[in-house]
């Protein structure tokens, strides 16, 4: 596996509105994007730019949201996943499977509009890991 660029740190929250106030007023984030719903992934998303990466705030959307369990255990929310870029999402998926890691589902379109998949935290040292195909032109 050739580690690519850190694209974002996923932070689960019960309230994007409250978290935006924290990242703006406490952390001094200068660029907070408009929140948007991602119903296919069961989350509402808001990107907060940092000087060298991005915070991806995620709030549950719908009864089947995959982050309800996390928030039940962590009511304040917190660091949920980390996302790295790869040039070839299918080759990366095959590599993780060959390494015996549990890849969760097929590659699907994520919040940045490119294909993503997740690797189970229990196979990744406790860190839910998202792999994302590098957006066009940023190889
Ligand atoms: C895709 C749009 C956007 C993007 O960037 O493009 C996003 O990133 S959206 C992010 C939200 N979507 C996902 O997280 C999808 C992948 N996640 C899952 O399929 C589940 O969350 C899963 C399978 C990782 C955990 O599901 P759940 O919490 O319902 O299962 P368990 O309670 O049985 O958990 C099993 C075990 O794992 C521990 N766990 C759960 N979540 C995390 C986490 N985020 N980081 C670390 N560990 C986690 C949980 O505590 C359990 O451990 P145990 O010791 O057995 O209690
Ligand atoms: Co993410």
Describe this structure in words.
With 139 residues, this protein is an alpha+beta fold. The chain has a single domain (6-133), classed as Roll (2,3-Dihydroxybiphenyl 1,2-Dioxygenase, domain 1). Helices cover 19% and strands 37% of the residues. Strands 1, 2, 3, 4, 5, 6, 7, 8 and 9 form a nine-stranded mixed sheet that branches. It is globular and about 45 Å long. The mean pLDDT is 95. Cobalt (II) ion (CO) binds at residues 8, 10, 56, 81, 83, 130. Residues 5-134 form the VOC domain.
The CATH superfamily turns out to be 2,3-Dihydroxybiphenyl 1,2-Dioxygenase, domain 1
Helix percentage? 10-25%
Instruction: Name the bound molecules.
Output: ligand LZKTLF4L, cobalt (II) ion
Which structural category do the helix and sheet elements fall into?
Answer: alpha+beta
Low-confidence stretches: none
Mean pLDDT, rounded to whole units? 95
């Amino acid at each position: 596996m050739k580690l690519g660029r850190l694209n974002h740190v996923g932070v689960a929250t019960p309230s994007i509105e409250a978290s935006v106030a924290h990242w703006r007023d406490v952390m001094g984030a200068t660029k907070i994007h408009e929140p948007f719903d991602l119903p296919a992934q069961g989350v509402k998303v808001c990107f907060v730019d940092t000087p060298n990466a991005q915070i991806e705030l995620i709030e549950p959307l719908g009864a089947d949201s995959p982050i309800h369990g996390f928030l039940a255990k962590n009511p304040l929310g917190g660091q949920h996943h980390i996302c790295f870029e790869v040039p070839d999402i299918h080759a990366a998926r095959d590599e993780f499977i060959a390494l015996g890691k549990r890849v969760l589902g097929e590659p699907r379109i994520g919040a940045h509009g490119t294909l993503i998949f997740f690797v189970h935290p229990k196979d990744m040292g406790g860190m839910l890991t998202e792999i994302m195909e590098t957006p066009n032109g940023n190889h």
